Amino acid sequence: MKRKPEAMGVSYSSEPEQKRGSGASGAPSQEDFSVPLDILEEIFLNLPPHQVVRICRLVCHQWKAVADSESLWKERCRREGYWIRDASKIPKDWRLFYFLCKKRRNLILNPRAEEQMRHWHITDNGGDRWKAEGVMAPHPNEAVLKNFVTSYGLCRKTQLIDLGAEGYNPSFMDHFQPDIKISDWYAPRWDCGSEYQICVQLLNHRKKPIQTFEPETVYFDQWNDQKWCQMTHVFRNYGPGVRFIRFTHGGKDRQFWAGWYGIRVTDSSVEICPAGDT
Predict the structure, then answer these.
(1) 74 membership: H or E segment, kind and range
(2) Helices (H) and strands (E) in the chain, counts
(3) What is the CATH number of the domain that holds 89?
(4) 3-class secondary structure, 71
(5) What is the CATH number of the domain that holds 178?
(6) pLDDT digits (tens, 9 = 90+) for 132-180
């Protein structure tokens, strides 16, 4: 008699088909897949996470219970270093927390001017236009060595992020509404006054705004400390329908000097985050 193949390290019985299983068709019963829960959890912890969700949890009720268990995903977070920053904010869904942490990344392309103006759509290019150059003052993040700089006329640039194309499908966004964190760094020249603007919008499938973050323009006087500043905002409970994010920023100098004496921007980011980790 031919030996049956093994699945997930669990052997099928070698008994005849009619003696195996609970149904007349001889299909394997739940008992055929029975494995001690602690061993089964350890097996799942060593499998790719998407395989656990898409395949393992469909095998039987026992496997589904382990694949959906809080202990499995909490332990997976611990092993891979995904942990909450505020211990008082315990995730309601550890599996969701795990996948959001694993998928988290900056959705802005070329945020530090390392590729000149590539990936940015310029909406305003006043004065001597946008320019990419090295930072004048050290950035708090030592990896940031370049920035975009504006001129004496208004300069603004934008990126449109397609959430579906980035792997965040409509049903996920509508049901879970994960936190969306934006961040931007800006700094003036010490010898020239300047101004800074930012506008970030959550858009529906028609690219119409659902929610907008647009703080007042920030003004710097001449003879300032040239210090880097960070602008941050977290979108929460924004409702269903978000399909795109439009990120726009820029500014100009206030002295009307030829050249590039306006506001500097760099290290921009848009991230989809688990709640409590923003």
Answers:
(1) helix 70-80
(2) 6, 13
(3) 1.20.1280.50
(4) helix
(5) 2.60.120.260
(6) 999 999 999 999 999 999 999 999 999 999 999 999 999 999 988 999 9
pTM of the model: 0.80
Q: How far is CA 77 from CA 69, 164, 173, 178, in A?
A: 13, 25, 22, 18
C-alpha span between 73 and 85 (Å, rounded): 17
Q: Do 70 and 181 share a domain, yes or no?
A: no
Instruction: Report the alpha-carbon distance of residue 235 to residue 228 in Å, rounded.
Output: 23
DSSP string of 108-172, one letter each residue: -SSTTSTTTTTTPEEEEE-TT--EEEE-SS--SSTT--EEEE--SS-EEEEEEEETTTTT--HHH
Please report how the helices 70-80 and 94-103 are oriented relative to each other, as an axis angle in degrees rounded to 10. 30
**Radius of gyration in angstroms for the set of CA atoms belonging to the chain, rounded to a whole number:** 26
User: Would residue 184 count as lying in a domain?
Assistant: yes
Phi-psi category of residue 129: left, alpha or beta, with phi > 0 → left and psi -120 to 50 → alpha? left
Residue at 106: amino acid letter: N
Whole-angstrom CA distances from 172 to 77, 91, 96, 213 are: 20, 17, 10, 22
Query: The domain containing residue 243 runs over which residues?
Result: 121-273
